[in-house]
Amino acid sequence: MATDAAGFPVTRTPAGVLRSARGARDLAALDARVSGCRACPRLVGWREDVARVKRASFRDQDYWGRPVPGLGPADARIAVVGLAPAAHGGNRTGRVFTGDRSGDWIFAALWRAGLANQPTSTHIGDGLELTGVRVAAAVRCAPPANAPTPAERDTCSPWLARELELLPQLRVVVVLGGFGWTALWPVLAEAGYRLPRPRPAFGHGVEVTLEGPRGPLTLLGSYHVSQQNTFTGKLTEPMLDAVLGRARELAEPR
Ligand code: SF4
């Protein structure tokens, strides 16, 4: 597989994403392959433009300007799945949900739930460690207006499907927002789970349990930690804490 200047394996087509994701043997290999992906021309152009132009307050920083891999250990029993990296958050720092207001919310909540060693996440090397949880995005590149197209969502889905397969103890997926909820169904089908018909509608606190190749997996819906929700009070800290508390309860070994 060809590599780019940074040494990441390069993927250029949707078929290549599927092949490359399925061939990743562990999370480290998957993260490297995600980081070299160029399969969605619109998103590649946008993420790299943002990284070149920068926001004035970050003009002295080198932006990542690539797809953003997941974060967290392979023995995670809980996954948290968001929408996509923010242009000046994950696309700048290179770590999921890191360096923006949404990240402040989710990592503080993970810390309160005992799943992170600190409540803040500012940059790679800030000491953040997750325990029992893996955090990832349904779409790995920052999209214009935070809105990937359905085709981009589908092209990216094999990365998340493989990531879930590479978490052998996974029992619970906390899905942040309706986009992630919709994006997750084909991902779960790809990962071998039997899907309910009709698909349950997204809502905060909605809980759905599926049967899959490694036993039951419960999906928990939560409103997204976007500023639109947290500034307006649609999502409060107690609401998010309740969902993560339920996730912890469901993830306990039986
Ligand atoms: S959105 Fe996903 S599939 Fe598309 S270029 Fe980024 S990492 Fe690749």
UniProtKB/TrEMBL annotation:
The keyword Hydrolase belongs to this UniProt entry's keyword annotation: yes
Identification of the protein by name: Type-5 uracil-DNA glycosylase
Pfam families, sorted: UDG
Protein's UniProt keywords contain Amino-acid biosynthesis: no
Family named by the database record: Belongs to the uracil-DNA glycosylase (UDG) superfamily. Type 5 (UDGb) family.
GO MF, any single term: uracil DNA N-glycosylase activity
Residue stretches making up the Uracil-DNA glycosylase-like domain: 69-244
Highest taxon in the source lineage: Bacteria
Keyword terms of this UniProt record: 4Fe-4S, DNA damage, DNA repair, Hydrolase, Iron, Iron-sulfur, Metal-binding
SUPFAM superfamilies xref list: Uracil-DNA glycosylase-like
Gene Ontology BP terms: base-excision repair
Family annotation (InterPro entries): UDG_Type-4/5 (IPR051536), UdgB-like (IPR044147), Uracil-DNA_glycosylase-like (IPR005122), Uracil-DNA_glycosylase-like_sf (IPR036895)
